[in-house]
């Protein structure tokens, strides 16, 4: 997906200030477990680091303000393709927010979207999901687009990364499996 790298300290500060002031627009694709209750909306839940596992985060009333807008793009029988637009930029924000709603990112072992999630389905469905998680090999979240003011020319710039082949293959497999 898209990442931003500054060439100079001055450029870094200019871009970092835009992140701090919530002026950077970001878009992600996420393939999640579950069918979402709303087809679009805002997840406005504070996020905090877990005390027992400092590498993990969770929704907590004592956490930092966190907002993620979303739109359901496509639904399959047990999964959905979602466009996420994080307003804030907390660590693991999209992963935590989607998991909190009961729709963790497909393949995300840390937040409940891994192989354990394939249990309880009919054997042929469970086998299909397990195979897809194994083939994909990571959690199904893709940084699709970022937009900010360029540090030198002060014009709006947009950088996009197309879906990688493995993400397209995952979607094709679901389309074929469910017709």
Tell me what the structure shows.
The two termini are 28 Å apart. This protein has 179 residues and is of the alpha+beta class. The protein has four helices and eight strands, in the order H-E-E-E-E-E-E-H-H-E-E-H. The protein is globular, with a radius of gyration of 17 Å. A hairpin with a 7-residue loop joins strand 3 and strand 4. The strands form two sheets. A six-stranded antiparallel β-sheet has the order 2-5-6-1-7-8, covered by helices on one side. Strands 3-4 form a two-stranded antiparallel sheet.
Question: What labels describe this entry?
Answer:
179 residues, alpha+beta, 8 strands, two-stranded antiparallel sheet, six-stranded antiparallel beta sheet, single chain
């Amino acid at each position: 997906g898209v990442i931003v790298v500054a060439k100079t300290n001055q450029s870094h500060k200019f871009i970092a200030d835009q992140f701090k002031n919530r002026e950077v627009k970001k878009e992600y694709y996420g393939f999640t477990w579950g069918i979402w209750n709303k087809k679009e909306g805002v997840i406005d839940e504070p996020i905090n680091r877990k005390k027992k596992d400092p590498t993990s985060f969770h929704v907590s009333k004592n956490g930092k303000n966190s907002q993620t807008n979303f739109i359901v793009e496509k639904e399959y029988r047990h999964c959905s393709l979602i466009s996420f637009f994080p307003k804030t930029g907390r660590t693991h924000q999209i992963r935590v927010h989607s998991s909190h709603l009961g729709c963790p990112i497909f393949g995300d072992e840390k937040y409940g979207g891994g192989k354990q999630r394939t249990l309880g389905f009919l054997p042929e469905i469970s086998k299909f999901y397990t195979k897809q998680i194994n083939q994909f090999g990571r959690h199904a979240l893709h940084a699709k687009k970022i937009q900010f003011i360029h540090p030198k020319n002060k014009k709006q710039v947009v950088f996009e990364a197309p879906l990688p082949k493995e993400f397209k293959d995952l979607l094709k497999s679901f389309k074929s499996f469910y017709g």
